[in-house]
Amino acid sequence: MAPTPPERKAAVQVLRALAVKYDVERVRDTAAKAAVQAMAAALLAVPALTVNDKSEAEKALADFEATFNAAAGAEAAPPDHDMAEAPAVEPSPDKVWCFRACQLTFNHTLGEWASTSDFVLMGLFQRLCAFAQHLVALLGCVGISVTLERSVKAGNHVHAHFYLHMKTPLRKQGPNALDAFAFEGIHPHVDANKASGRDFDGAVRYGHFYVFCDKIGSLASRTTFQPWEDYGVEGWWLDKLLKQGKLARDTYLTYAARVNIGFQSRLQNIRAAERFERVAAVTAHVQVEASRLAGITKPCKMFPIVSEFVAWFQKPAFRRPILAIIGGTNLGKSMLAADILRKVGVILGVPDFLEITVEGDQELDFADFDHRRHAGVLLDGVGDVLMLQLHRETLQGRAKVSKGGQSATNVYAYPFTLANRAVVAKFDLSALNRDAFSSHHWLSNSQNVMQLHLTEPAWIEEAVTPL
Length: 467
Description:
The protein is 39% helix and 20% strand. It contains 13 helices and twelve strands.
């Protein structure tokens, strides 16, 4: 019997990898042509199939079918004296199955398997559990685990996993070798445990845990081989399932707490990821809202003092003044400050700026300031005018490294610099010590603080055309 062409095996392996990804029933490398085509058809019918995966599946199917056309052409051609004649289509050999543990995956897309009713699905699960008890008696299983899950990638049907291990190996041969595993006419994909020696027990424990644990999409599960009672759970199992997107974070931490060892590290990793995602979500939300407002934002007026402030960044300087915008509410101070910082950003070639809400704080948090992408800082809602004088060495942007975030151990948390970067501070009429802008020797000097007192809106009103 001629071996299966390698290009045919390669095409089947591509299709099977995609079938695993989308929970479609798989076949062997040497499966009959009709079986491979059925697997490909089921895969291409998955609603959640991405465009790239669909293209890959179609190409693999075409490559698979082309091997038969090539074989037929070779059979019709004059035989080469160095080549033994081979049939165009290779029949599937009788495979010998021999294993002590395996995972069964039942995939079906019709009837109860496509139901959204909890009552119907629990009825299906109870029958699966009864079938599991039948396998225990039939095969002498030491442990068996069952789960019913909703497919995450193709969520219009459910599938079931069994994991079982036996006292003695199951040895069967022939096309009907695995008929005992058929549930109500549905033949599962059988993944035999190929581990040996000391690795075998570990593979069995992981197999049971994988089936029984509360994965994303799990509807119900049952086992006769309990984790933490009949076997220990390894922390790396949880890490692997989390990385694969199988476990929700809360479930992961619940299991990690029971594993105990390494829990603190896992907890910190999860919380750090959640903080990062929260910040990213806030940033994305703000960007969306800002883009929505961009179309209705009115242009800002041209103030001479603003032009003078922006001009400071067109030439070298040892230090630069701070721009203070003082005025009542609803005059557009924030809009004007942002417009000024964007103008400076055009000069410096740096597109963004950092907004820091100050209010009553005396310490400024520059932990998020990055001179590589920020043209300056907007100090929003400053509650005390004297704050500028308190932080003058930092805010005037001398060419030096500043340090911030002093910790309990007297170590600074981060370095930053405002050299050649703009500082715009906003003050409303409730700010403390506003008289210092005219009486304080340092604050009243325009070389240190340039003052813009708003008494009218900072934006340009649309001209009204007379009737």
